[in-house]
UniProtKB/TrEMBL annotation:
The keyword Transmembrane applies. InterPro entries: Alkaline_pH_Ca-Antiporter, NaCa_Exmemb. The chain crosses the membrane at residues 12-30, 36-56, 68-90, 105-125, 137-157, 169-188, 221-239, 251-270, 291-314, 320-341, 348-366. It comes from Streptomyces nitrosporeus. GO terms for molecular function: potassium:proton antiporter activity; sodium:proton antiporter activity. Its main location: membrane. This is Ionic transporter y4hA.
Length: 368
């Protein structure tokens, strides 16, 4: 057995064992008040299950190729995010009325500034200039900006209901529009203009990985699909078990409730960040941007319809409108993102600018 086969075997063992352990932790902790030690153990199992879930999503992505792989990763991560939001909103009651907004906006800031900035920084350090396809990336950024405006900006200014929330008809329109727009983008990305979302070389040609590892076989792909589902179930269940500890910890630290949404988004997007950085280190910055902007798009385009449907059973208001500070940060993100995307090339400076915006978001979330 060669070294690569041995490495795959070792990787396969932990990515099967960790989700199994996470399921055991879920069974033992479900519906119980957990002491501090148990919370730590469940949290470790949750983090391991997240990493295993994205590993299996990457195996499936390798089988189907780009840009389908980026789409699979984004949808898998968004499934986790949506499930966590719904669970915490069901448990939180009226106090969780803004949790969906806070989590979705945090996901947009993390992906469009944190992940994008980090990947541009890594790509520029690796190749001096990070090269990507401006047409595909620009289309993705425009879609993210439109989805964010329809779902998170307009509720602040509509007058159908008092406060930053939609009327039922407006919420239904935003949900349907978000879902249709996301579906249209997926069709363009994977069928009609697939070449706009493929990695480029430094001279602007499509990258060909002649020495890339062969795709996994059908048996390995099916196993990864099954383990992906197991890991997602473990993530959702264990997150419900530790959510009271997260909320009480945020409250005890005197931080705003919005920090809970930031913690959720950071948790579910951590493995996505690792995958994007790995792609940037391999000089596949376009794949990194597909992952980042695809996750932001899926976060809005899939979360808002689910939350709109769940609002039928949720008690209390559903606050989706952003406050003035967040509106400024979103506007700055869109403007800076457009200026970054247009040339199709980025240096360390663009990466640093995006990271500065992300740092401002995190700081203002903790100290508004």
């Amino acid at each position: 057995m060669d070294a690569s086969a041995t490495a795959r075997g070792l990787t396969g063992r932990w990515t099967v064992a960790v989700p199994a352990a996470a399921v055991v932790a879920l069974v033992l902790s479900w519906g119980r008040a957990l002491p501090a030690f148990a919370v730590v153990m469940v949290a470790l199992c949750l983090a391991g299950a997240v990493l295993a879930a994205v590993h299996h999503a990457e195996v499936i992505a390798h089988r189907v190729g780009d840009p389908y792989g980026s789409l699979i990763l984004a949808v898998a991560v968004t499934f986790i995010e949506v499930a966590l939001i719904v669970i915490l909103m069901l448990d939180g009651g009226p106090e969780a009325s803004a949790l969906a907004r806070d989590t979705v906006f945090a996901a947009v800031m993390i992906t469009c500034n944190g992940i994008v900035g980090l990947c541009l920084l890594v790509g520029a350090l690796r190749s001096r200039v990070a090269v990507f396809n401006a047409e595909g990336t620009g289309a993705a950024l425009a879609t993210v900006a439109t989805l964010a405006t329809l779902s998170l900006v307009l509720p602040t200014f509509t007058i159908g209901k008092p406060g930053p929330e939609f009327s039922p008809a407006q919420l239904g329109f935003a949900a349907v529009a978000s879902l249709l727009l996301y579906g249209l983008f997926v069709a363009v990305q994977t069928v009609r203009h697939r070449e706009y979302f493929l990695p480029l070389t430094q001279d602007g040609r499509l990258r060909r990985d002649d020495h890339a590892a062969p795709p996994p076989g059908r048996r390995e792909t099916v196993l990864s699909l099954v383990m992906l589902l197991v890991a997602l179930v473990a993530v959702v269940g264990n997150a419900k078990s530790v959510s009271p500890a997260v909320e009480s910890g945020v409250a005890a630290a005197g931080m705003p409730q919005a920090v809970v949404g930031v913690v959720i988004a950071l948790l579910v997007l951590l493995p996505e960040t690792l995958a994007a950085v790995r792609a940037a280190r391999r000089e596949r910055v376009q794949t990194s941007l597909n992952l980042a902007l695809g996750s932001a798009m899926a976060s809005i385009g899939l979360t808002i319809p689910v939350i709109a449907l769940a609002s039928v059973w949720l008690d209390g208001p559903l606050h989706l409108g952003l406050n003035s500070t967040h509106l400024v940060l979103l506007a700055l993100t869109v403007v800076v993102g457009a200026l970054t995307v247009v040339p199709g090339r980025a240096t360390l400076l663009q990466g640093g600018v995006h990271l500065a915006i992300f740092a401002a978001f995190v700081f203002l979330a903790i100290s508004p």
